[in-house]
Amino acid sequence: MINHSPQETTKVCMLKRKNNYYQCVTITLLAGLILLGTQSFAQARLALGQLWVENKSNPLGVTEAAPRLSWTILSDGFQVVQTAYEIRVATNEKDLKRGRHLIWESGKINTDQSIHVPYKGSALRSAQRYYWQVKVWDNQGHASDWSTAGFWQTGLLSASDWKAKWIEPGYAGDAVFKPSPMLRKGFTTGKKIASATAFITAHGLYEAFINGKKIGNAFLTPGWTDYTDRLQYQSYDVTDLIKQGNNAIGVLLGSGWYRSPMAWGDNINHYGKKLGLLFQLEITYVDGSHRYIISDGSWKSSTGEIVYSEIYNGETIDARLKKTGWALPDYKDAAWVSVHVKDYGFKNLITTENQLVTKHEVFHPVKVITTPKGEKVLDFGQNLVGWVVATLSGKAGDTVTISHAEVLDKAGNFYTANLRAAKAQDHYILNGDENEVFEPHFTWHGFRYIKVEGLSGNLNPDDFTAVTLYSDMPQTGHFSSSDTMLNKLEHNIEWGLRGNFLDIPTDCPQRDERLGWTGDAQVFSRTASFIRNVNSFFDKWMKDVAVDQFKDGRIPHVVPNVLGPDQGGSAGWADVATIIPWNMYVAYGDKRILENQYTSMKAWVDYIKGVSKDDLWNTGFDFGDWLFYRPDDDNDGRAAVTDKYLIAQCFYAHSTQLLINAAKVLGKTADVQSYTALLKKIKSAFVREYMTPSGRLVSGTQTAYVLALNFDMLPEHLRVQAANRLVENIHSYGDHITTGFLGTPYISEVLTRFGHTDVAYKLLLQKTYPSWLYPVTQGATTIWERWDGQKPDGSFENPGMNSFNHYAYGAIGDWMYREMVGLDTYEGEEAVGYKHIKIQPHIGGGIQSAEASQLTYYGKLSCSWEVKDELLSLKIKIPVNTEATIFIPTNDATRILCNAVPIKDIKGLTVVGEKAGYLQIKTGSGNYNFSSTITQTKEK
Q1: Does residue 785 have an active-site annotation?
Q2: Which of 193, 176, 178, 158 is nearest to 272 (CA)?
Q3: Hey, is 785 helix, strand or coil?
Q4: Region 312-318: what's the mean pLDDT?
Q5: Which of 9, 63, 143, 590 has CA atoms 20 to 30 A from the CA of 348?
């Protein structure tokens, strides 16, 4: 509504704070209101901000026939809504800006749609760059200028566009646990280059170079998919790497997920035995001619300094074997061996669909430790995922070993038992040069501490830095509060995501696992969608879920599936098929994920229906409420064991409901009718089997009541009593949580829904085991797999399964963002993706203030609240082209001021009702500062 510079407002408030902070805000904003009355909206600014194509900024390798375009609108106005847009597209940026030689002019389209607008121009060509602009009109008579130009570049749109051939090392002995292959080719360019694009993929992992410089900034490419059906290739703009004259291409290959041991046992060569490369470079010269440099029989192969590399055990580099300059044009490769050409075809090739894994934060040691055992250890202060860059000096042949660990044991010694069979070690063999720099290529580690062996003398911490690796998803969410412990919890939630969203959502990053466990991903998916933009990340991974889905409809426990044909179909894990597509649709308003996944969603529900008897799903294997509370000496039955089939029936209903929701969005009316009838039967069967006439469940655990309430399994008249039983259970454990993986994501939401936010706060702020803050009291910097991974006496849980970087319990973040601060979205088709925003803060727990912001596709959304002497200050920012319903905790509209004046005096603020102690106000975009006394009323 009124935009003030933060500096102005803060300065005035600081001057007045000792007298009356709230009076200070009133005076400042009232002045702004008077100014508004004299200037009107005639000078309001309307402009375009961020542009996206297929949910990415200026992407390469787009293969959609009709890419979807989105934009953010910027305005100083109040309640601004787009009323029309116009888009133009050209193949040349100069032509675009001059409005000539356009390949699409949309004309002025009267609509408020500003995200996922499909391109409707002429057919797109492979490997072509397209530039686009948009201008918009608003409901206040303003028109923007044309936006800055964005672009997208197409990938290879058909298999026939591939001119390259698959090649493999020509020397004998390429195999897992053997040296990493090196491939190279020289070429000459005689004309001036206008542009050059490289398309690359591999069997295994690759790092590619032109003239000694790395292509792109990504690592662990081409990422992990079910390679048999879906192998991603990457597209790179390499124009600046090529020079007129002699050039050279060099490519390193690593075993990676393709053939390294995965999971347990001798599970090697899962996708193949031989590493290979597919490389296609398309050069466009200034004169308009084209040239292709491709992988073919003219390439040569050898090995070098990477003598061993795989995921769990790490990498060994022997610097004595380094082939200096091997990726440069003048390198002599006469001793190298010609490659083998293979005909593997191109049918399984797809463009890159998500953000690639890149380097991010760099950490320096915060402490040098000599352990009681005499080990030389460095502490980086943060449990992270990536690797260490080490600068080493010594004699030729000296071996320096870097081992990785998450924690030190009770005595202060380096602890790796929880890594199980994973060695997690990098070995560097020196060549005798001074200050040799080492870092891995095709492995990664989860660690806070490293142990260094093989160096004489004291460790110099300046010689070691830790570099993080994770998928390059834009950060979108921010949370903070007046409680420092909660802020540390939020930190841990965020770092759990960073460490485990490494091309796929892994369960943990350190031990001999690192797999895409479906249950972990689904419980955390909504929390993740706040912290980072995971739209493309999950879109890509869910396609692999569908590809790996068994013919009978079961979903594997892990995706990509490396566990085999019998590992799947567990309740709460396999329901990833329905839960994540719906969560992503609600978070981003992107209907395409429902379109892509609907067949998979339906097949999963139909599988459950097929194995159910009398509408009860009570057969087959289930993980149940994984890692629920179990005291060591359970003499009086305090272990929170929940009937696995009760859980299964709840998720059967939930997946059916989500399938119905998706069918409504996609216009599948017959499915809506048939599955709605099925859902009624599922819930009736639940009541018959698992509930007494008085509403008591056969399992009296927190998880049982949470799932039954969250998924509306109980008759409506019995839900309040069930919520009361849940609260009684929580109190009986001294206000501690006892849920496992499946109950934890929903418990706080259920408590708030049924008017027990005070209990939700007690759970959130509990500091003793089991609780979210207990690990924080123990110095955790990430979320733990177990509530008591490290016990109060410093000892550890069972090392067979005790990860200290496991994000599932971090799902509490969803409640902190959507309920505590109050940033939420409605689920109707015209509301998802924060088109219609719900803001309903839940204040309690003695917390004095909390704030959160999120970058939506419409712009920045934020809410902050502060309580002082029963006076609530609520500051809200609503992005342009959206609307919001704001819930203020009072039942008296006269108690509310907005920007220092009564809300009835502000045009566009509409009071739509009062419910459960909240006054509901509907409005549009703008900045709002509400103040009110608080009315404490429980919701029902």
Answers
A1: yes
A2: 176
A3: coil
A4: 98
A5: 590
Checking DSSP bridges between strand 464-471 and strand 445-453, what pairing results, if any?
unpaired
Say whether 513 is catalytic. yes
Cβ neighbours of residue 482 closer than 8 Å, sequence gap 6 or more: 847, 848, 849, 850
Give Cα separations from 323 to 167, 250, 310, 318 (angstroms): 21, 12, 21, 11
Q: Could you count the other beta carbons within 10 Å of the beta carbon of residue 330?
A: 8
895 pLDDT tier (thresholds 50, 70, 90):
confident
Q: Sheet containing 129-138: which strands, arranged edge to edge?
A: 60-62, 150-154, 129-138, 82-90, 104-105
| Amino acid in the structure at residue 447 | F
112 and 924 in contact (C-beta within 8 Å)? no
* pLDDT given at position 44: 67
Per-residue pLDDT tens digits for 836-861: 999 999 999 999 999 999 999 999 99
Q: For residue 109, what are its two tokens?
A: 């389209």
Contact assessment for residue 937 and residue 891, using Cβ atoms and an 8 Å cutoff: yes
Q: Could you give the CA distance from residue 601 to residue 718 in angstroms, rounded to a whole number? A: 30
Backbone φ and ψ for 461, nearest 5 degrees, come out as -60, -25
CA dihedral 572, 578, 580, 583 (to 10 degrees): -110
Strands 231-237 and 349-351: parallel
Residue 109 near residue 36 (C-beta atoms within 8 A): no
Name the residue type at position 763. Answer: L
pLDDT confidence of residue 935: 67
For residues 806 and 783, the answer to whether their CB atoms sit within 8 Å is yes
What's 593-629 look like in SS3?
HHHHHHHHHHHHHHHHHHHCECCECCCCCCCCCCCCC
Output the six-digit token pair for 451: 């142990």
Rounded average pLDDT over 7-23: 29
What pLDDT, on the 0 to 100 scale, is given for residue 41?
35
Q: Could you tell me the two tokens for 815?
A: 């409640």
Which pLDDT score, from 0 to 100, does residue 401 have?
98
DSSP annotation of 717 reads G
Question: Which of 894, 879, 886, 891 is closest to 921 using CA atoms?
Answer: 886
Chain position carrying tokens 């706040």: 530
Contacts of 712 (CB under 8 A, 6+ apart): 653, 683, 719
Instruction: Work out the pLDDT band at 12, boundaries 50, 70, 90.
Output: very low
Task: Check residue 820 and report its DSSP letter.
Answer: I
Q: Would you say the C-alpha torsion 880, 882, 887, 891 has a positive or negative sign?
A: positive
Give, in degrees to the nearest 5, the angle at Cα 338 between 336 and 339: 120
What SS3 state is found at 787?
coil
Task: Name the active-site residue from 490, 513, 797, 819.
Answer: 513
Q: Can you give the pLDDT at residue 633?
A: 83
**Model pLDDT for residues 531-568, shown as the tens digit of each residue:** 999 999 999 999 999 999 999 999 999 999 999 998 99
Buried b (16+ CB within 10 A) or exposed e, 848-887: eebbbbbbbbbbebbbbbbbeeeebbbbbbbbbbbbbbbb
pLDDT band at 735 (very low <50, low <70, confident <90, very high): very high
| Phi-psi category of residue 366: left, alpha or beta, with phi > 0 → left and psi -120 to 50 → alpha | alpha
pTM of the model: 0.94
Considering 305, 353, 785, 866, which one is annotated as catalytic?
785
Beta strands 300-303 and 231-237, pairing class:
unpaired
